[in-house]
Design a protein that fits this description.
Radius of gyration: 14 Å
Order of helices and strands: H
Number of helices: 1
Structural class: mainly alpha
Distance between the termini: 45 Å
Length: 40
């Protein structure tokens, strides 16, 4: 396995689940940014 600065050390989270979690957070952040732009 490569040394990734985003890897979680031995927490039992599968890589796919970790990627899905990051994707969900990015989507949520994009939605919040769009709402904030509409507000301003």
């Amino acid at each position: 396995m490569y040394n990734s600065p985003f890897a979680l050390p031995d927490r039992g989270i599968m890589e796919a689940e970790h990627i899905n979690s990051i994707s969900y957070k990015l989507d949520d952040l994009a939605q919040r940014a769009a709402e904030l732009r509409r507000y301003l």
